[in-house]
Amino acid sequence: xxxxxxxxxxxxxxxxxxxxxxxxxxxxxxxxxxxxxxxxxxxxxxxxxxxxxxxxxxxxxxxxxxxxxxxxxxxxxxxxxxxxxxxxxxxxxxxxxxxxxxxxxxxxxxxxxxxxxxxxxxxxxxxxxxxxxxxxxxxxxxxxxxxxxxxxxxxxxxxxxxxxxxxxxxxxxxxxxxxxxxxxxxxxxxxxxxxxxxxxxxxxxxxxxxxxxx
Length: 214
Description:
Elements: H1 13-16, E1 27-33, E2 36-43, E3 51-55, H2 66-75, E4 81-85, E5 94-95, H3 103-117, E6 125-130, H4 132-143, E7 149-155, H5 159-165, H6 169-174, H7 183-192, H8 199-205
Helix pairs in contact: 3-4, 4-5
């Protein structure tokens, strides 16, 4: 079935207006670990079922998985937990040494965030990664640093190619527009350029990728 036409009229705020994170997750918290304060979105933290951990790709944020996380949680609200952190130098994560996006560092980051949130975990874990995030979760699984991994899902990634592409990620990000006049125009650009195909996802995640300068 073909997708409906996209509405890119930035003068129509109802079609390109930002969506709030709280419509997709229950919690937004900051975890200070080492030189970085990680921003993490989550739902169902007190549940006892499987923990779904989402890792976004380069130039995105935890909100990239907002629609998927909400869909999964809505279908098992009493059972599962969903967690979607912003990796270093992305989204609302802040701190020193933010340019260090090497694979070992990001693997350490994800393991450290998980262990801070779920110490002595005995629950099943499902790791989901998109693009760069796919390389991260694949290596977390391979390292066996997190026990009880039940499943691994890689989205839009050939794992070996993703590792090879990691050094070029800063250049990839630098080729994006450096500024937008409005948040709505930033959302429209991400849809028009097909950086994000789903307009709802763009309205949710793009505001977390930009900063206001007066």
